[in-house]
Amino acid sequence: MTTTVLTLNSGSSSLKFSVFAEATGSRLKLQLRGDATDLGGDTRLRVENGARELIRERSVPGKSRAERQAAALDLVLDTVSTEAGGQLFSVVGHRVVHGGDIFMRPVGIDADTLTSIRELSPLAPLHQPYAVAAIETIMQRYTKLPQIACFDTAFHQTQSDTARRYGLPRELHDAGIKRYGFHGLSYEFVARALPALAGPVADRRVIIAHLGNGASLCALNGGQSVATTMGFTPLDGLIMGTRCGALDPGVVLHLLRDGTRTVEQVEALLYDQSGLLGVSGISSDMRELQASTDKNAVEAVDLFCDSVARGIGAMAAALSGVDALVFTGGIGENSAPLRERICRACEWLGVRVDAIANAAGRACITNGASKVSAWVVPTREDEMIARHALAYIAR
Ligand code: ADP
């Protein structure tokens, strides 16, 4: 029987899934992929087959976000088993955002690991509680099915203690208040894919820009993470779709002290109402902002580019220079104008964008005179999860 893996990426506003079958060699065959995004009032679950053709679209019932999240998972599980003629997949791989200092690699989930994952939930409130809920549902429904947790933080464990340290008293660091970094599954996928595209430069000083709704940068040397812009939580670093990014902690103290907002309201402000959405007052969606002539939308895009360019400078400093720059994520993969702007802001580092190659969506977007080559590498976090899950059950 073919080994198949269901991957789940559960967040507050989306549930994404894929099904892969193990094919010959190290190949994976995509069988199904789908998502229920923006779990608002009229959420729909869309399912595509391996050829990326839409094969099903269903509305997701439920009065609250939590109910729709649970209903979306039920629909995914039913859809996957119906499509496979009633057969059950062999393993489930979950994206789990925060592994703290506990989880350095993918783990099989049992009651103890689930407790630890649940305890880390306050550190990633947009994702972790939803991954926990999905794990619990599947545990109850399929008691014998192996479930594997793949952590976004794990890729950054190669960073030095100093790179992970905040300027706080040592006992807080020892208690776990440190930089963890996120988007690790994406960085791992891109780092593995880069040598085939870019050759030996992939092994030198590389900065990967993962620019999606969530956005961060990672500095890699020899394929290993040396520094990253996100920290203790996925709130730090670049400004994002709805997250504020780096902020003077004095602002948070001020917001809490002035007594007009509860802790939960400040949390919602920083995670859900800030970033591109907060600055533009229009949308968190980069495509929409780029299409707008509203001055606040223009400023939001300017601020995003500025934040990425400054971050690249910081990552280059962590590496004492840079040899290659890689764009990935929804914005990094699809927005040629933003890539060009960011590359031009990095001319001082030796980046010379090839506007035609960039606009044409080629893999390499710099010209022959560029000291630093720049690349576009589509990320596939689901494939990375599937590989980890299959490797885990094959041990
Ligand atoms: P997530 O972090 O939720 O996985 P994605 O990586 O899918 O998000 O990125 C979503 C972002 O990518 C949105 O802001 C969307 O507008 C942006 N995006 C997708 N395609 C384009 C495009 N052609 N031009 C500009 N932005 C785009």
Descriptive report:
The protein is 38% helix and 20% strand. It has 395 residues and is of the alpha/beta class. The radius of gyration is 21 Å and the shape is globular. The chain has an eight-stranded mixed sheet, with helices on both faces. The protein has a five-stranded mixed sheet with strand order 11-10-9-12-13, with helices on both faces. The protein binds adenosine-5'-diphosphate. Adenosine-5'-diphosphate (ADP) is lined by residues 212-214, 241, 285-287, 290, 329-331, 334-335. The site of adenosine-5'-diphosphate has 13 residues, from α9 and α11.
Task: Summarize the helices and strands and which ones pair or pack.
Elements: E1 4-10, E2 14-22, E3 28-37, E4 44-49, E5 54-59, H1 65-83, E6 91-96, E7 107-108, H2 111-119, H3 128-141, E8 147-151, H4 170-174, H5 184-198, E9 205-211, E10 215-221, E11 224-228, H6 249-257, H7 263-272, H8 275-280, H9 286-291, H10 295-319, E12 324-328, H11 329-334, H12 336-345, H13 355-359, E13 373-376, H14 381-393
Parallel strand pairs: 1-6, 6-8, 9-12, 12-13
Antiparallel strand pairs: 1-2, 2-3, 3-4, 4-5, 7-8, 9-10, 10-11
Helix pairs in contact: 1-3, 5-14, 10-12
Residues 212-214, 241, 285-287, 290, 329-331, 334-335 line the site of adenosine-5'-diphosphate.
Features:
binds adenosine-5'-diphosphate, 38% helix, 8-stranded mixed sheet, alpha/beta, Nucleotidyltransferase, domain 5, 2 domains, single chain, globular, 395 residues
